[in-house]
Hints:
Elements: H1 5-18, H2 24-41, H3 43-52, H4 65-69, H5 93-116, H6 121-127, H7 131-148, H8 157-178, H9 181-186, H10 188-210, H11 217-229, H12 232-242, H13 250-260, H14 262-272, H15 274-277, H16 282-302, H17 314-317
Helix pairs in contact: 1-2, 1-6, 2-8, 2-11, 3-11, 3-12, 5-6, 5-7, 10-11, 11-12, 12-13
Amino acid sequence: ALEEGPGQALSIGKVWEGFGFEHAATIGLSFATLGILMSLFIGVPLVNWGIRKGLAVHAPKDLPEDLLKGIIPKDQKKEMAGELTMHSGNIETLAFQMSLVGFVYLLTYGLVKFLGTLVSPDVQASLWGFFFIFGILIAVCVHSFMKKIGIVHLVDAGVQQRITGWSVDFMIVSTVMAVQTIVVWKYIVPILTIAILSAILTTVFVVYLGNRIWSYNIERTVAIYGTVIGTVPTGLLLLRIADPEFRTPAALELGLCNIMVAPLIFGGVVLTYAPLWWNWSVGFTVLIFTALLAIYLVLLKILNLWGPSKVNNMEVQKID
């Protein structure tokens, strides 16, 4: 109920509104907003707990003061935002880096628009919810092409991270502002009930399974947790607390994960339309999702991701 963020919630909500589900888009945005907020209010203490237990490989034992307060003291050494890859007399580096993001955005927009012409209107609307995944694929292709022709050095990771950070902050504020409080208040009880239950179940499952990963437990756990209860950017945000310089493979794995699970996510979205397209009952649709959950749990067992905790800490194992 909380995953995938505002884009997916809005696109699916608009489709359901077309079939008579009143205020579906606003309700979807409400869940997306709660997911982002819960990923922070639950995720940050979870990261802090892992750091205090010494589980984070490249993080200090305690959260730094500047992270807790949000302001870097004037006498503290400042982190560099990035490096110049263009001569300022010709083009500003920030403008060039943002133009790369814009270029990928335009290519992604064109791809989604084209794919939309190949499917029905309701499926076309849902495709925009996968804009981020298509964007990752396009970005990987553009990066590979730049590397092949020998100009990949023009991309600066530091400036790109600043652009990503700004985008995440802007997305969170925009999502909160897009929610219509009057509509939310009307459905406040079911919204909070579903959100709280989803948050509890998600936290228990992710922490339990995260303790069974063979390495980088806290880094991989918080990255996935922030993603499945919020969005990929919130997953990266939590990961950066545990792994400030992205020195572990968790960040790369998170990007690859979104590409690899795209067919599964798309299949899940298709199932949400089953009552509309194939006249399935809600009960039967839930039964199908339950069967899929059972299959995924069996696969976790087969892949040895569901068994004794691999975290060598007795206090950590107590949470199981």
